[in-house]
Amino acid sequence: MSASDDTIEVRAKNTSVDHESKDGMNDSAAVNAEYAGDYASEDEQPLAWSRFREYAQDFFSEFLGTMILLLFGDGVVAQVVLSDDAKGDYQSISWGWGIGVMFGVYVGGKSGGHLNPAVTLANCVFRGHPWKKFPVYFMAQLLGAMTGAAIVYGNYRSAIDAYEGGSNIRTVTGDHATAGIFCTYPASFMTRTGMVFSEFISSTILQFVIFALTDANNIGAGPLTPLCLFFLIFGIGACFGWETGYAINLARDFGPRLVSYMIGYGHEVWSFGGYYFWIPMVMPFLGCLFGGFLYDTFIYTGPSPMNTPWLGLKRLVHPRKTRSPWTVSNV
Amino acid sequence: MSASDDTIEVRAKNTSVDHESKDGMNDSAAVNAEYAGDYASEDEQPLAWSRFREYAQDFFSEFLGTMILLLFGDGVVAQVVLSDDAKGDYQSISWGWGIGVMFGVYVGGKSGGHLNPAVTLANCVFRGHPWKKFPVYFMAQLLGAMTGAAIVYGNYRSAIDAYEGGSNIRTVTGDHATAGIFCTYPASFMTRTGMVFSEFISSTILQFVIFALTDANNIGAGPLTPLCLFFLIFGIGACFGWETGYAINLARDFGPRLVSYMIGYGHEVWSFGGYYFWIPMVMPFLGCLFGGFLYDTFIYTGPSPMNTPWLGLKRLVHPRKTRSPWTVSNV
Amino acid sequence: MSASDDTIEVRAKNTSVDHESKDGMNDSAAVNAEYAGDYASEDEQPLAWSRFREYAQDFFSEFLGTMILLLFGDGVVAQVVLSDDAKGDYQSISWGWGIGVMFGVYVGGKSGGHLNPAVTLANCVFRGHPWKKFPVYFMAQLLGAMTGAAIVYGNYRSAIDAYEGGSNIRTVTGDHATAGIFCTYPASFMTRTGMVFSEFISSTILQFVIFALTDANNIGAGPLTPLCLFFLIFGIGACFGWETGYAINLARDFGPRLVSYMIGYGHEVWSFGGYYFWIPMVMPFLGCLFGGFLYDTFIYTGPSPMNTPWLGLKRLVHPRKTRSPWTVSNV
Amino acid sequence: MSASDDTIEVRAKNTSVDHESKDGMNDSAAVNAEYAGDYASEDEQPLAWSRFREYAQDFFSEFLGTMILLLFGDGVVAQVVLSDDAKGDYQSISWGWGIGVMFGVYVGGKSGGHLNPAVTLANCVFRGHPWKKFPVYFMAQLLGAMTGAAIVYGNYRSAIDAYEGGSNIRTVTGDHATAGIFCTYPASFMTRTGMVFSEFISSTILQFVIFALTDANNIGAGPLTPLCLFFLIFGIGACFGWETGYAINLARDFGPRLVSYMIGYGHEVWSFGGYYFWIPMVMPFLGCLFGGFLYDTFIYTGPSPMNTPWLGLKRLVHPRKTRSPWTVSNV
């Protein structure tokens, strides 16, 4: 929680220190003075757009955060693959995805920066995130991922043409296949069981560590959380990224897969690896649920179904009101 | 804003903790005592130089910050190119530019550490940075970049001679071309549209994320901002750095290009890639404006034209007084 | 100590700021409200499991922390070895182990995140960690390491089969040996003395720096400690990792060695390098004790046997009561 | 200064939070209770060793800090050179030296963690560091560097024998030269002027950025300073490390050079590159002085000769008393 406390403390202080603000990188405090007039009037009748944005904050936040994730993530794979490792190597890919998550979280912070339906699900089940928000988050993440992948395609289109050998050639397999830029495909030696297990364990580690990083009763990463997420994704890529490409996220994998299908990579995007595509759709949910279950069962002492009579099933009987602390927090 | 609050809190505290200062790395607190006498006198009649420096603080700050950026940035490219990848690889270049921005911001913090005319423009448009400062920042950044590039040339001159095969040979293309040390040149397969789009999207991401990092109503990076900028530049280089070399900054690209022209790399520094040179001059401005527009429209709730009646056009009618919070903050 | 102070401050503040919580990544504060009812009842009769977990906190914490360490650590070696350096290189291994320790500490923070029996011993000798806890920590670390190694084996089983050339082939030496995935084996040119010294010096540096990072009278890393541990392990791997593979931890080396023996790597896991296996079991203890001795003798001014009459031997005469601050701190 | 304030705040708080300490990684607070008895008695008659250590704190601190720097720094070069790049590459060397400085500063924090005579000189000239301490710092740094280099030699002796082809062979030049492990040698194409300039500019950047990082009136790195130093040294190595090996430190270069001479690398350690050895002894002082001069002249507004009548020459006339804030701060 320290992250939030920081920002709050800060706002409190700004009033007193505006005129000595040293941090040139953020002018908002200083500007407060200037727009005061406009704001006064605004308090009475807020702008229509501001009202709508407040209403749609979660959607915009997750959409843009996940878009940033895919811009860096698919972007780095494109650069490494298309330049034949001249402009990066496997390690660069770990950097790219780690950085994508780090900044996706900074961008999407107002909605929690989940960027991943499985993380959202785990927050609904274990952290009281309102269920009614799940569909909104899910759609925002999926569409954001598709947008990011489409932009990467637009940016690297001429490079893909050069690499594939023609603007009408798009291949999933072969020496100059480029489908791997957008979504994950399993290594050739993998068994079905191996694919399932690899995605499951990676997702379990992901959620297990995320809950540790955000546990104020443990060490907790506080303001370092986004930076730690860089290391977490980097680590999963370096340690469990080979066999299935560590999708660990339906939005990140299925969204771009759809995009690549629309682009014209053909039916193989679905059939490759014995219709592997469903594994990174399903397993992240199971893995993240299991990771959350492990953390709450053995370490977490805060409020959680694990620490509540009847595993907190009461909530299902008396669902929370719309006006949850989150809506407030996003005002 | 926490960065600024930190420093302010700190100064407040120092008075009480001088004699227990543990951080040997910064002796200023301790020295306060010592120079007290001199200072007393100074309060009455400040030194002429101090007065001038206060007046020219923005210029010095941006000049030196951008110089540091180029020292690391052009320096790493020189080392990698001239040593034929023996003393670094493509990833080292991402490190070098990221580190250059990180320390450029630490050095140029008093003026906001923009280091980039496009970032300054976006701050003028969206964060109320005084327009009258734009020309000062622009010149300081351009001259700082030229100085940095010139120093790098001086440092690597003998290595360039050895690599090019003679002290009078300076080539933009060919097996031993070294012009790429100073400014960016597009990859061979790129179309004009591709170049424009690549610079545009990179600059958009740059400004979009910078506004997220400095948004106190979002997570915000606070004191971690310079470190986050390292990751941001590293990421842009790893994910979008291949096609046009991610100039995303007029000062960083045009300044050193001028220097390389003066050095004697010839007319090709302008003509290469179908007179590509204007793209990294123009697109960063458009990209950063669009990135700022996106962030303020969909996420930013603080004072911004997007959140103000008539998009804050009032300001154009009643421009701010000279004595803006920034001048104060730089005292 | 600042890490702890953070979390404490934070909890203090939460009560007042729940409804303005900005950090979407941690919902616990918000949930407090919700589960209030259930909690009230809980105060009277805590759940049986919560009571047991409180009792076994140290064990769970060290077990899971060390498991995470091995998941990343053995995982990265597996990926690099089995992919023939296609999916990583030696540097990736430094990344993997560093990240493993970093997140192992975040996960195991409630018990101090030792993850290493030698570090636990040094804390008992120099920092008053209760001796009665040593066996618990030791077993938890050993079993956690074995579990982590077993999971990695499960995850990479098919890849190992493909690499070794058959599901019944497991080799310690040879062109396709994979035993190095699980535990360390010395370089061929090493003498017995060299092995002993290499493990000793690495462990000395480990404990010496850890005590510096956690010394509140020195600079101290505070909340940055887990991140610093990433750099420390990375550095030991990059600087002293070649000769013996920097085990510097009985749990990390002996645990997985047992697992690999059970898997069927045969007697060579013990006999290789002239029965080298005992060196990473014994030397880390001696090295960490010496590192702690050096730090406390020459730098540490806090409470330590070095700074106490009779080197604090009193404690041996009057051992502390069960109810030490730690048990409290883990409530 | 925030680093120091942190630690101070912290100590203040500990008293109140001992029994809720969450940060298991630092037990000192908890132990306070335990040793209270012993301490009481100690207040009356402190231990002889504690008294001596307090007196020699600066020496121990700089000695051990510089030793750590060389352990990582020379260690990584040894591993990369002797393993023929199998266990690291040029980038690993940047990592190793960066990490060495980072932890050298954490270890040597009580004396300011200069680790470099040139940095100490700059602090004497520009930050009122007592001149009388310069010789102590100088000797401590030199001896610490020699010790670190000697330990690295001991650790890698068998590897050096294997690489050189015999235990009595130690070469500075040739295919299997290993002298480069200990100190720096210039690249073959370098002119005398080039060597001088390369060391000068690197040292200038070093001190210029250090003063920026520790300037509480600029952004300032506060508790992030040691981490930033990692990036600074990494950057100097990646951008200016090729031509002369970025010694930028008399202790780091001359100390190990002496050691390698004692080991038996012969007269060539002095004569190589036209008796290059004096350049990394002299230029760092000039470079750091110039870097400090630049920062204080154009940016620093705190107490500095640049900001003082007669450039603070008064001090030379009335030198400070022995009992300076530092001696106090190190009590």
UniProtKB/TrEMBL annotation, chains A, B, C, D:
It is a multi-pass membrane protein. The chain crosses the membrane at residues 59-82, 134-153, 195-214, 226-248, 275-295. It is found in: Membrane. InterPro entries: Aquaporin-like, MIP, MIP/Aquaporin, MIP_CS. Residues 1-25 are annotated as: Disordered. Residues 8-25 have a biased composition (Basic and acidic residues). Belongs to the MIP/aquaporin (TC 1.A.8) family. The keyword Transmembrane applies. The keyword Transport applies. Coiled coil: none annotated. It comes from the Eukaryota. PANTHER family: AQUAPORIN OR AQUAGLYCEROPORIN RELATED, AQUAPORIN-9. The gene is FPS1. This is Glycerol channel. CDD domains: MIP. It comes from Sporothrix eucalyptigena. Keywords: Membrane, Transmembrane, Transmembrane helix, Transport.
